[in-house]
Amino acid sequence: MAHFHSLTVQKIKPLTPNSVAITFAIPKELIQTFAFTAGQYITIKKEIKGKELRRAYSISSSPKCEGITIGVKKVDKGGFSDFAHNKLKVGDVLEVMPPEGRFIFKPSPNPKNIVAFAAGSGITPIMSIAKTVLESNSKNNFVLVYGNKSYKETMFYTDLVKLQLEYTNRFHIYFILSQTQEDESIFGRIEASTVNYVLKNKHKNLEFNDYYLCGPEAMIQLVTENLKEKGISEDKIHFELFTSTEIKDELPEKPEGKTQLKVIVDDEEFSLSMDKNTLVLDAVLKENIDAPYSCQGGVCSSCIARIKEGKADMVKNQILTDSEIAEGLILTCQAHPTTPTLTVDYDDV
Fold first, then answer.
1. Entry's Gene3D superfamilies (predicted)?
2. Taking the model in full, what pTM does it have?
3. CATH number belonging to domain 113-240
4. pLDDT band, residue 320 (cuts 50/70/90)
């Protein structure tokens, strides 16, 4: 299982009034450890006011670049993003877990046409994917639909314009602005008419190989439904949530009673007793077992484990496929035991 490593902050670049790009230097001995595929994220661990916080941030830089860059939007007062904006300095050292994640693009020798729909900070992994698509094959095309309130609030705006100038005939971007009417933009939000305009009007002659969606859940659902109505198969639609709807008490019945839980992590076994109405990850962390986790909201994939014995139900799942669930994989931050005994293995994923 991956562990945290100490990385030095090499650069901090303001992106908008509420977001910054942070670049980490990768020492020679960790270059292979921190090699990544476009679209992946890193998890940062930081103690703030006596409490350990873990936050997942998508990588915006290309795998070909030296160092790793992430985009951090200020969303929490007193949390890590607040710390990153107000206190973090070049030269500071943070604990960082190696890259992971399944929202990825792998270069192919065959030409690819890719389209992406992003909103707000959902642009972060799309930046890495776009750069990789354009760099990896001179015949690849990339179309981006990117929604924000205004240009002022648009993360990586300057980088995107530079990318457009560098790949004039192969990179096409549509800025969608909901609060200001500005040049070279479409006023409004990403909706069905936007999808139709881009796919059926502006690029009707392009056959797209894959569709990448990243941002708020409502946008992802809207675009996904529209693509399916157009006959796009699910295996071509890839998405990653950057916010998630709070879902409470969604299990048909709240499980009652106790479960004897066995946890396998880093080749060690731990046993404990837990309430069935408690989430597996919560029970594990309460015992100070060093299991992998990050968002604790079912949005990332850090806490995936494999069920070796017993059963568990997930409150929500936006990541695992039906076949992966059938193989026994669960998001432990969303799973309640439903059997008297349960064994989960974090190493076998």
1. 3.10.20.30, Nucleotide-binding domain of ferredoxin-NADP reductase (FNR) module (3.40.50.80), Translation factors (2.40.30.10)
2. 0.82
3. 3.40.50.80
4. confident
